[in-house]
Amino acid sequence: ASIYVFHGPNLNLLGTREPQHYGMRTLAEINQEVQGLAEQAGLNVECRQTNHEGDLLDWIQALMTEDFLILNPGAWTHTSYAIRDAISGVKVPTVEVHLSNIHARESFRETSLIAPVCLGQISGLGSEGYNLAMRFAIDYQIRRTK
Ligand code: DQA
């Protein structure tokens, strides 16, 4: 079993993209920190980013129930029934992460189509949200293998 961290569209631009919403840290820096947490706990972790919805669907479909997914679906949060169906179809435990507080911005961001098939959602805590999700994922994976 592994922990996967998947980032959706435009998150490759972190560091320069609207830092007032998404902060100054790059995706590589965020990934390095979450990777460190998982490795300290002795768990496998893999981080990926894509701008192609079909890639993300294929990646989710290849997961196993025993895995754990930390997902920032980017704008697909608000549009993709297909990603939601992939998560519920595979039954992989998932935590949704957003850097910005999607409930405090434009009204189209308030609705997450993904949240109902996730264990929970972290939104508005910046890059720290990924670390918190990783800490949860580590505890969850250790608990379920006991
Ligand atoms: C985001 C929020 C989304 O509304 C937006 O489309 C993104 C990033 C976030 O991390 O705050 O691309 O998922």
Describe the structure.
The protein is α/β, with parallel strands linked by helices and 146 residues long. The protein has a single domain, classed as Rossmann fold, CATH 3.40.50.9100. It is 37% helix and 16% strand. It has a five-stranded parallel sheet, covered by helices on one side. Strand 3 (68-72), helix 4 and strand 4 (94-98) form a beta-alpha-beta unit. The longest helix is centred in the last third of the chain and has 17 residues, at 128-144. The model has no long low-confidence stretch (mean pLDDT 97). Keywords: Amino-acid biosynthesis, Aromatic amino acid biosynthesis, Lyase.
Brief digest:
The chain is of the alpha/beta class and 146 residues long. 37% of the residues lie in helices and 16% in strands.
Number of helices: 5
Biggest sheet: strand arrangement? 2-1-3-4-5
Number of domains: 1
Using only C-alpha atoms, the radius of gyration works out to: 14 Å
Ligands (ions, cofactors included): 1,3,4-trihydroxy-5-OXO-cyclohexanecarboxylic acid
CATH architecture: 3-Layer(aba) Sandwich
Order of helices and strands: EHHEHEHEEH
Return the average pLDDT rounded to an integer.
97
| CATH third-level topology | Rossmann fold
CATH structural class: Alpha Beta
Report strand %: 15-25%
Which blocks of ≥5 consecutive residues have pLDDT under 50?
none
Distance between the termini: 13 Å
DSSP strand count = 5
Structural shape: globular
- CATH superfamily grouping: Dehydroquinase, class II
Structural class: alpha/beta
Helix content percent band: 25-40%
Q: Major beta sheet, specifics?
A: 5 strands, parallel
